[in-house]
Amino acid sequence: MDIAAVLGEFLTLFIMAFALGMDAFSVGLGMGLMRLRLRQIFYIGVVIGIFHILMPLVGMGIGRFLSDQFGTIATYLGGILLLILGLQMIVSSFKEEESRMLTPEGAGLFIFALGVSLDSFSVGLSLGIYGARTVVTILMFGVVSMFLTWAGLFLGRRVQGWFGSYSEALGGSILFAFGIKLLFAL
User: Fold this and answer.
1) How far apart, in whole angstroms, are the C-alpha atoms of residue 65 and residue 2?
2) 134 burial class (0-12, 13-18, 19+ CB within 10 angstroms)?
3) In the chain, where are the structural domains located?
4) What is the rounded distance in angstroms from the CA atom of residue 100 to the CA atom of residue 158?
5) Where does the chain cross the membrane (predicted)?
6) How far does CA 185 lie from the centroid of its chain?
7) Helix, strand, coil shares, percent, the chain, to 5
8) CA 147 to each of CA 18, 68, 96, 124, 182: distance values in angstroms, whole numbers, following the listed order
9) Where are any strands of DSSP class E within 80-157?
10) SS3 labels along 17-84
11) Which of 14, 82, 98, 120 could form a cystine bridge with 56, CB 3.0-4.6 A?
12) What is the pLDDT of residue 103?
């Protein structure tokens, strides 16, 4: 395999992981204003990272099945799914309503982690249709989202919550662009 192609795929996956992790980053900014203990911040980041591994893994498995069954149609569906997901993230970043505040402990932490990783399932579905490398993809998503969650929580301790909506819009724009790329690659 060509080294340039491998590096290109790695960079693409990193950018997608970064885009998906921006949701966790923006929510982490808001939670960081709660003045969490360092141990809580550590656990929140790890749980978010694990969910960002599990959700795209399930999505990729379903996406590979669809790809084997439906071929090119499934690739178009994956691109459309990324477009819709990107648009949804962009639109939700401009909503005025405050998101509900869950406590980042116990069941609240798992609900929070599931909520911020649902978009990873959809992207995993698209990547499974596309045929991306599973291990590299899920590890990239997990590690990047864990570090972005930590960054959001730490930064949230220092700044106001105004930055969060812009980061979600940026993440949505990146996913939208990848959807367009996937649609026009055929």
Assistant:
1) 27
2) middle
3) 3-184
4) 21
5) 6-29, 41-67, 73-94, 106-129, 135-156, 163-184
6) 22
7) 85, 0, 15
8) 10, 34, 27, 19, 27
9) none
10) HHHHHHHHHHHHHHHHCCCCCHHHHHHHHHHHHHHHHHHHHHHHHHHHHHHHHHCHHHHHHHHHHHHH
11) 120
12) 61
d(CA 80, CA 117): 19
| Nearest partner of 140 among 10, 2, 7, 5, judged by Cα | 10
Find out whether 38 and 155 touch, Cβ atoms under 8 Å: no
User: Looking up tokens 């309503």, which residue turns up?
Assistant: 97
Q: Which pair of structure tokens corresponds to residue 166?
A: 């812009």
Tokens (6 digits) for 83: 């477009």
Half-sphere exposure in the Cβ direction for 57 (13 Å, CA): 12
Instruction: Give the model confidence (pLDDT) of 78-104 as tens digits.
Output: 678 778 877 876 787 777 655 544 566
pLDDT at 68: 65
